[in-house]
């Protein structure tokens, strides 16, 4: 024991310095951080000042450099001028000195002066030549560049050994080749064609127009040995269908069908249109792709009547189903006799609609009202047994009005889009009491079949002496260990809470709204006061054996106008 105690002391001695050392390191670290922070604050103005000086120095250097360049140009320009002035002075001196030497000497001086002034190393012609040559060269170079940039260029196309023409860029050729391959793929019998091409950038004089991808494709097809025709390619959503000689009859037939469909609708529409797009591309096509116009019209305007089985969803009616299929409830009932207005979920309904080869779509705008679900707040209360619920205030759904765009395809609703929503009324929250009172006898063998107006008043226990019994017992004795919780059997106001000198010991009397009173006697401790309002299931006392009692129990009475009643008639325990 002595050794262990000594070891523990040593451990404590070693631990304490370690903790002190850690604390010291932490404090020194904080101090260092503080000093670093101070240094940083001192350095910030210095850094900003250095940056400012750098900017000023840079600007000065730029200005100084510009000044030096200007001075250099001035020296370059001034030197030949100064030299020319010096030559002029020399010539002038010689002319003045020759005036007094006779006419011949004067002419010789003039000739010599002109020679020096024009043809010497610093003469006018040499000076002009030195400045003019660079300017002329620069102007010549500029004119060549300008001429070159103003020329137009195009890509010459040579296909399978034949020159076809010009295109603006290589992408046009790639598109044209794709068109040719596409048209060849629609042939009834497999068709092959070589694609040997050469693209060269050449000067373009504009004498012939540049090919578009479609035009180039037509010319490419003509180079092959195929049976071709000039026609209109008919495309549905970009997919080739066939080629026809005339497109106007097809467009007219489709427009007529669309107009007739629109006239047959009984609702105000925003738009009526074909869901698919038909387009026509004029060009050169294989003769095998040519289709009779009437045959194509018949195929595109074909319509069939179809019958399907619809399964109703929750909260649907015969009217909502009729609206989905652009028909009336009467027509729905013709196919489904004895169908109720409100349809149970899962009801099978036969519905007819017209199926068009070119699906016809239309849009309408409608007003719709939808419900907004209300929230529910649960409030726990001991006034109700566990598992019971009571609505304190009913919830009310709110309403929202929608402006909706509804799209139908072949008369069947396919899509809904909300354009605008406006709240008509806000939902009202529902408030529900949820029972938490769980007091019950200790054993399920204790069964009482009363009306349930009162709750079992104690946490556990068993009936040790019934009402009246063999000694004119005016209450119900419930035995339980000391300090077991006693609860109010119903809500009310505490009339009495204290000591009773006639054998009850510590007791409580509660006055209830229905005129009844309940009495709780022999308590060990009272937990409520006179005049206090208590709720059903509220803790009011603890079990004891005070007063005229031989053991721990609760003496429980029910009174009205001074008359005692059997508490078992008001208690319902283990009876359901």
Verbal overview:
The protein has 576 residues and is an alpha+beta fold. Among the domains are: 303-356, Membrane-bound Lytic Murein Transglycosylase D, Chain A; 376-433, Resuscitation-promoting factor rpfb (Resuscitation-promoting factor rpfb fold, Single Sheet); 445-573, Distorted Sandwich (Glucose Permease (Domain IIA)). Helix content is 36%, strand content 33%. The protein contains 9 helices and 29 strands. It has helices at residues 2-98, 103-119, 124-150, 170-185, 213-222, 248-264, 293-300, 318-324, 329-335, and strands spanning 153-159, 162-167, 197-203, 228-236, 239-244, 271-274, 278-286, 303-311, 316-317, 342-343, 348-356, 360-372, 376-385, 389-393, 398-409, 412-425, 430-437, 448-449, 462-465, 476-479, 485-487, 492-500, 505-511, 517-526, 533-534, 539-543, 553-560, 563-565, 572-573. The strands form 8 sheets. Strands 19, 20, 21, 22, 23, 24, 25, 26, 27 and 28 form a 10-stranded antiparallel beta sheet that branches. Strand 1 (153-159) and strand 2 (162-167) form a beta hairpin. Helix 1 runs antiparallel to helix 2 (103-119), helix 4 packs across helix 5 (213-222) and helix 6 (248-264) packs parallel to helix 7 (293-300). The longest helix is centred in the first third of the chain and has 97 residues, at 2-98. It is elongated. Mean pLDDT is 84; it is low at 1-20.
């Amino acid at each position: 024991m002595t050794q262990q105690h000594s070891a523990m002391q040593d451990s404590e001695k070693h631990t304490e310095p370690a903790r002190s050392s850690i604390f010291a390191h932490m404090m020194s670290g904080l101090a260092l951080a503080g000093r670093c922070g101070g240094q940083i604050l001192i350095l910030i103005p210095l850094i900003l000042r250095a940056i400012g000086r750098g900017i000023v120095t840079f600007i000065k250097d730029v200005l100084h450099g510009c000044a030096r360049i200007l001075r250099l140009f001035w020296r370059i320009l001034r030197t030949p001028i100064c030299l020319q002035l010096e030559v002029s002075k020399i010539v002038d001196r010689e002319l003045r000195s020759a005036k007094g030497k006779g006419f011949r000497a004067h002419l010789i001086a003039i000739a010599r002066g002109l020679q020096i002034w024009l043809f010497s190393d610093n003469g006018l012609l040499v000076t002009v030549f030195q400045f003019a040559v660079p300017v002329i060269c620069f102007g010549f170079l500029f004119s060549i560049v300008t001429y070159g940039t103003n020329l137009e260029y195009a890509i010459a196309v040579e296909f399978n050994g034949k020159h076809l023409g010009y295109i603006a860029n290589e992408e046009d050729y790639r598109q044209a080749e794709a068109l040719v391959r596409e048209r060849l793929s629609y042939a009834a019998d497999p068709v092959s064609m070589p694609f040997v091409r050469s693209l060269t950038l050449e000067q373009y004089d504009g004498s012939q127009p540049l090919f578009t991808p479609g035009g180039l494709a037509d010319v490419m097809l003509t180079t092959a040995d195929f049976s071709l025709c000039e026609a209109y390619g008919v495309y549905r959503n970009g997919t080739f269908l066939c080629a026809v000689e005339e497109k106007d009859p097809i467009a007219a037939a489709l427009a007529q069908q669309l107009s007739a469909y629109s006239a047959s609708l009984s609702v105000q529409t925003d738009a009526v249109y074909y869901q698919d797009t038909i387009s026509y591309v004029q060009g050169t096509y294989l003769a095998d792709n040519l289709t009779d116009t009437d045959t194509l019209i018949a195929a595109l305007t074909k319509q069939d009547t179809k019958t399907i089985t619809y399964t109703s969803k929750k909260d649907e009616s015969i009217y909502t189903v009729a609206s989905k299929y652009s028909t009336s409830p009467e027509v729905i009932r013709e196919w489904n006799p004895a169908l109720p207005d409100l349809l149970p979920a899962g009801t099978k309904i036969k519905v007819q609609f017209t199926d068009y080869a070119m699906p016809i779509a239309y849009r309408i705008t409608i007003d719709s009202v939808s419900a907004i679900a209300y929230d529910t707040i649960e409030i726990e209360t001991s006034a109700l047994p566990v598992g019971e619920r009571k609505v304190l205030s009913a919830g009310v759904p709110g309403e929202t009005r929608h402006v909706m765009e509804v799209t139908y395809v072949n008369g069947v609703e396919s899509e809904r889009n909300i354009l605008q929503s406006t709240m008509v009324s806000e939902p009202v929250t529902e408030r529900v009491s949820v029972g938490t009172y769980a007091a019950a006898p200790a054993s399920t063998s204790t069964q009482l079949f009363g009306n349930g107006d009162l709750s079992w008043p104690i946490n556990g226990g068993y009936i040790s002496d019934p009402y009246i019994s063999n000694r004119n017992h005016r209450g119900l004795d419930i035995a339980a260990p000391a300090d077991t919780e006693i609860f109010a059997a119903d809500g009310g106001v505490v009339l009495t809470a204290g000591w009773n000198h006639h054998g009850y010991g510590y007791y409580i009397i509660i006055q209830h709204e229905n005129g009844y009173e309940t009495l709780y006697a022999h308590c060990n401790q009272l937990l409520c006061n006179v005049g206090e309002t208590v709720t059903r299931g509220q803790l009011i006392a603890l079990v004891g054996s005070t007063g005229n009692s031989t053991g721990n129990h609760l003496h429980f009475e029910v009174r009205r106008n001074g008359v005692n009643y059997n508490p078992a008639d008001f208690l319902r325990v283990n009876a359901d």
